[in-house]
Amino acid sequence: MEQKQSIEQFKGQARLPNFAIPKRYDLHLKLDLSACTFSGTVQINVSIVEETKFLVLNALELDVHQVWFTNSHGQKYHPCDVVLDGDDEVLVLVFDKALGIGEGVLGVDFSAVLNAHLVGLYKCAYMDGEEKKNMAVTQFEAVDARRCFPCWDEPALKARFKITLDVPSELTALSNMPIINEKCDGDVKTVSFEESPIMSTYLVAVVVGLFDHIEDTTSDGVKVRAYCPVGKSDKGEFALNVAVKTLDLFSKYFSTPYSLPKLDMVAVPEFSGGAMENYGLITYRETELLFDPLHSTAARKQRMAIVVSHEVAHQWFGNLVTMEWWTDLWLNEGFATWISYMATDILFPEWKVWSQFLQYTTGGLIMDALEQSHPIQVEVHHARSVLEIFDAISYEKGSAVIRMLQAYLGDDIFQKSLSSYIKRYSEKNAKTEDLWSVLSEESGLKISEMMDDWTKKQGYPVISVTAKDHILEFEQTQFLSAGLLSEGKWIVPVTISLGSYERRKNFLLETKSSEVDISDLVDTSDTNLKNKETCDEQLWVKVNIEQSGFYRVKYEDKLAARLRKAIEHNSLEATDKFGILDDAYALCEACEQSLSSLLSLMDVYRKEADYIVLSKLIDVCYNIVKVSTEAIPDSVNELKQFCINLLMFPSGKLGWEPVPGESHFSTLLRAEVLQALVTFGHDKTQNEALDRFQKLLNDRNTPLLTADTRAAAYIAMMRNAGSSHKEGFESLLNVYREAGTVQEKERILRYFASSPDPDTVVDVLNFFLSDEVRDQDIIFALPGISLECRETAWKWTKENWELILTKYGAGLLLTRFVRDVVTPFCSNEKADEVEEFFASRLHPSIAMTLKQSIEHVRIKARWVQSARQEQSLQELVKELAGKK
Ligand SMILES: [Zn+2]
């Protein structure tokens, strides 16, 4: 009785009890890839720091066979009770006699199944010639090491790992450390790896499969390898090159060398995320590691550089210095993200990735404008729920907030502080507050006072700006897409430009409202400015220069009009033109500005040539078409015509053919402009796209469609595919089936469901669930569902929900069904219907995504209502559509 009560105390706890601490794991795994099972023995050196009758560690879906504990005097104990609790994911060992304080070794024999859900130690299929075979891979972050071996599965409980594997002798076996010994015994080989330095359990990794590899060495002599599918090792060259360069770069930036003797990178055929930074053994989804000059787009190449830099940066930020608990996950993800842009900008300055960082962090601004958002530093009550915080708040807002702080402190202080932080917490764990204290020491400023606002509070401000002569008035309030709140105060580093980028002012907005005198910026000797009219026109005020701060700005009408002039006169940087449009769109969605005013602003971008600005403009076009379908259905075609008009200038300049030596941005832009034009139904572009698609059907290597322009042709094909025109779908299906690269398959999946015909889309959705599409690739396929078929997709999802749940398991992939199928709706009726459907089908892993998706629908519904009230909206749309 007494004992039972004691076991109860371990239930429902967020963290493991701390009376025993692991120091070293000796792990031996024996894999049977044909039976899809494994067995293992782990011997864990532990320090008992408090006398105890219990040892409590994590385990999940493991069969535990034998357990023993040997203390430092050689006395052996066997537990009288072994309890595996599947809900709390713990293994409780109960001993008759208390284990005394001191060192000991805990041994466990166990076995399990190699699962198919891409977590823990899982199986994945690969082709060996014509034969389908199994390989085995681990994915432990966040809390799935416990599915592979019993362990203290918390980031703060770092230990050394000595790993040994029994695997089929023809396969390559990899782990975090280099191989120290390999012994063959018939069909099986035993591979032993060197003992690792101390690290967290979520970073332990094993890969067993068939690969070819290429290698290179950093200037510090670290051997770096890229493991690729057999016969495709040349495709790993680009990633290998980026990894070698970034290892050198980060060693210098942090003044700390890379801490392991080698770094391997592996392209894994089945993988749920993008990449995983396991210490010394980074695993990637194939499309993130394999570069194919013919089939990879410019956008994909850039993303690969960012992803590789991100994972390499984790070897310091995350692996060497680890967050103390998942609450501080953003320390890993926010920093790795921010620094991956820094590194990519250094390696490929021509890509100007900092301007594209804004496109990326918009995701953070969107999510954090929801009532269902959460603070960057978030309480994690149950380890399993940590999966949901690998989201736009940890990555996008996290990295944006870091960039804002870096811009405020300056590069030098920031770099010095980061390198002190890495040195001080090397092989240890840290909290957000630890980083703030290092930054405070180096800068002499009270960093936590300012930053707590951004990391401990949900949301961010919108700053309203009004001008009275030479005084600018600022007032902040919390920005929410469902309507602004009157409360809310942040410490905001505000930057202002006045009429030119030479005339700027910075200040910290620490109160609800504040005034700034800008007389010193107005050069009264400038005769041009004496005239009231030219003065107004030239003295535009842009707040949040280059959008380096994580907040939005709302200008009074007079200032907004001046900015529109400045955009027309091309006086602003691309980042600012991007920011003005992005803020205006968000304010319009929140019903703080009219849709008419947004359309008038869009109209001044007609002569725009810059990639990020146009990319934003296209994004806004897609969204307003979506909302207008409900708000002003009779005017949607005219609205699409207006969108087409806006893109005539860049499309005329870019055409279909890449120009040798053209800029990276031209290549990126051509792809997006053509896709938008076929989506909005521009006849000329659609016909051209269909012609080119026919050429592709006759010759898969036709130069008429490059990797970058193919998507436009695929969309055109599917937009024309319907019940009366089945060949469209079938011909694209053939291209998919014959595609020899993952890049080409990914591209087709993205646009497969873009047909406006419900029957075709049902066929496509059923195809997504077939064996011809790998489970992991569903993330590409779902966002492409056409606006016309959102209802079809929702109906299909409801009908197939049980099947979807079984096939994709309860994890990241399942959340995509919720997000991508639900968010295109714009009415409260639909929001209610979705809520009702999931009321009896709620699963913890989709809870947050579902709430956020429904909130998005209600926000759009509110916007639709508001747009319907706008008096002259339809006349304006007509006028803009006619203005060529
Ligand atoms: Zn990461």
TrEMBL record:
Note describing how the cofactor binds: Binds 1 zinc ion per subunit.
Any GO CC annotation of this UniProt entry: extracellular space
Residue span, Peptidase M1 membrane alanine aminopeptidase domain: 238-454
Location, primary (coarse class): membrane
A GO molecular function held by the record: peptide binding
Domain of life: Eukaryota
EC number: 3.4.11.-
Coiled-coil parts of chain: none
Marked site (Transition state stabilizer) residue numbers: 395
EC main group: hydrolase
Alphabetical UniProt keywords: Aminopeptidase, Endoplasmic reticulum, Hydrolase, Metal-binding, Metalloprotease, Microsome, Protease, Zinc
UniProt entry tagged with the keyword Membrane: no
Cellular compartment(s): Microsome membrane
Stored Gene3D superfamilies: 1.25.50.20, 2.60.40.1910, Neutral Protease Domain 2 (1.10.390.10), tricorn interacting facor f3 domain (2.60.40.1730)
Domain Aminopeptidase N-like N-terminal: 22-203
Pfam families registered for this protein in UniProt: ERAP1_C, Peptidase_M1, Peptidase_M1_N
Residues reported to bind Zn(2+): 310, 314, 333
Topological relation to the membrane, as annotated: Peripheral membrane protein
Record domain ERAP1-like C-terminal: where: 540-858
Annotated family: Belongs to the peptidase M1 family.
Protein name (record): Aminopeptidase
